[in-house]
Amino acid sequence: MKMKNPIITLLLAVASAGTLPAAVSITVVNTVPNGTQSGGSGTGFGELSTSSGTISSNNGLPTTTYTVQGVDLTSVGGGSNATFTFTVTYTSTTNGSTPSTVNFTNTFGNVAVGGDNFVSGTETLTATIALTSSSFTGLSLTGFTNTRIGNLTTTGESGTLTHGGGTTPFANGSPNVIIYPISGNFVTYAVDGATTVNFEGFTAQFDAVPEPASASLVALGAVALLRRRRAA
Fold it and tell me: For the whole model, what pTM was predicted?
């Protein structure tokens, strides 16, 4: 009688025992970083939300720290109350190299450059996101997925977003599109001519994958099933 390949048999056993749990994606949104919903002093309402758990901000500049708590990662072996923190750090330049200060806009709560309400002229503003701590080792930062441009209200205004996925031009139009898809862990705003904009927010994604222990449990289950079949 022809013997079955043990590797193929094991793979079939794994398939019968069940596949590894799928990764869990967590989406966080912050618009108007110093606005009402972010716990800041700005008058803009904005949004601070997470697809799992709760999120809070310290409204700091040039670095804002966010804490996400109560994240349910049970399906990937991380428990039902995982916690992680991440930061968004803002830096700026004028004339291509000279560092400039960053600030919250005077009343609304967006981020701007040079003590006024805007990114303008030769100024640039860069936001960089980083995962700083996590109670679950299988959590990683995927990066920004979009950014929201503030004050893009005048016909003819335009500029460029530079991010991990390349460059994306932006412009005021009809309808006025102010949310642009981006990728990677940074985005830099630069404007054309007399355009004046500010940073009104972002969406970012984090992914949690099964820890090695979870994978081992599935493999052990497959081996046990294989042994049971051989004994039958």
Answer: 0.84
